Amino acid sequence: MPLRTRLFVSVVFAALVAALAVGLPLFFGAERLVDRAAERELSIMQRKLDRSIDAEVKKALSLAALVAQQPAVGQAIAFNDRQRLADIFVPGFESMTTQYGVEQFQFHTPQGISFLRVHKPEKFGDDLSSFRFTVVEANASKKPVIGLERGRAGVGVRAVHPIDYNGQHVGTIEFGLGFGQEFLAGLTDGADDEAELYIFPMEEVATFASQDAGNARSAATFTGEPLLDGATLARVREGETVPTAVVIAGQPHVGVARPIKDFAGNVSGVAHLLTSQAALQAISTEINWIAAFAAVLAMALAIVVALFVGRRIGGAISGMADRMSQLAGGDLTTEIPALDPKDEVGRMANAVLAFKHAALEKQRVEAEAVTRREEAEAERRQ
C-alpha cells in the first residue's frame, strides 16, 4: 500500500475512533438522561400521592374531631335522638361536600350499627361490623382510627372518631372523603402526567382475569382501556412495585404501579402513576442528531486533513524516493527541492542532496583521474 494511502487511512481511522469516543457517550448519556428524568418525575409523583393521602386523612380527622366534641352530638346519640342529629347536620351536608369533598358522614353505635347516615338519612340500622373494620376498631379502642378503607362502594379516606357523653362511650362519628377521579385530577394537576386507580374487590381473589382489570379500575385521568393486566395487578397485590411502559394517545409514557394500603396495612388497590416521555425523547433525539452531525463534520474535516497530509508528506517522500532512484541510476542532473531542514522530510531532502553532491564529487574526481591518466599516457608516447 502506498505511503500516501496509509497516511490517509490512518488519519481517517483516528478521526473515526475519536468521533465514536465522543458520540457514543453522548448517545448513551442522552438515554440515561431520559431514564433518570422519568425516574425523578415518578418519584415526585409518588411523594405527592403520599402527601395528598395524608392531607385528606388529616382533613377528615379534623372534621370528625370537631363534630365529636360537640355536646349536643353525644347527647343525641346517648338518648337515641336520630332526628335531632339529622336536623343539625343534614341541611349543611351539601355545603360540606362542595367545600371539603365529603362523600360520607355517618354516626354509629358502639356495636357498629349505622345510627345515621347524614349523606343518606333514610338508610340506617344496618350492621357494619362485618366489613367496616375502622368502625369496629374505633369503638373497641375508643381512639380515632384513620386511613384508607375498602368498603362496598370502593376505597375511601376514612376518619372514625369516638364520641363520649358524660364520660361514657356512646358511639363513633365517621367522615369519608373521595378517593377517585377528583383525587387523581389533583394529583396530575393538568401536566403531562397521567394516573389510574384500581380497587381490589372485598373478597379474596388470588388471580385476575383480563376482564377483572377493567372491573377493578375505578378512576383514570385519561380515556381508554385499563393499562394494567390481571398478572400485573396480582403482583402489586402481593406488595410488589412494578415498572411499566405504555402508550397513551400516541405518546410514550413510563410509569410505576404501586400498592395502595389501607389503615391496617393491607393492599386494597393499585395506583398506576405515569409520566410522558415525549418531551424528553425529543430532547434526546436532538442531542443524538447534534452528536451525529458533529461526528460527520469531524469525519469530513479528517478526510480533508488526511488528503492534505497525504499529499504534503506522502508526496514529498514519494518525490524523494523518485529522485533517489534517478540518482542511483546515474542521473545526477535531477533537481532536489529545497525543504525545511527542521522536519524529517527536510532532513531526508538534505540527505538526498548530500548524496547527489557526493556522487557529483566522485564523478568529478574520477573524471580528473581519467584526464591525468590520459595526459600521462600522452607524455610517454612523445
General description of the model:
Among the domains are: 1-39 and 279-374, no CATH class; 69-177, PAS domain (Beta-Lactamase). Helices cover 55% and strands 20% of the residues. It contains ten helices and ten strands. The protein has a five-stranded antiparallel sheet, sandwiched between helices. Strand 1 and strand 2 (114-117) form a beta hairpin. Residues 204-211 have low confidence and may be disordered.
Strand content: 15-25%
Count every helix, treating DSSP H or I runs of 4 or more residues as helices: 10
Strand pairing plus helix content: what structural class? alpha+beta
Poorly predicted runs are 204-211
Strand order of the main beta sheet, please? 2-1-5-4-3
What's the quick description here?
Keywords: Membrane, Transmembrane, Transmembrane helix. This protein has 382 residues and is of the alpha+beta class. It has helices spanning 3-68, 71-78, 82-89, 93-100, 133-141, 181-188, 210-216, 230-237, 278-328, 344-381; strands spanning 102-108, 114-117, 145-151, 154-165, 168-177, 194-199, 217-220, 242-248, 251-261, 267-276.
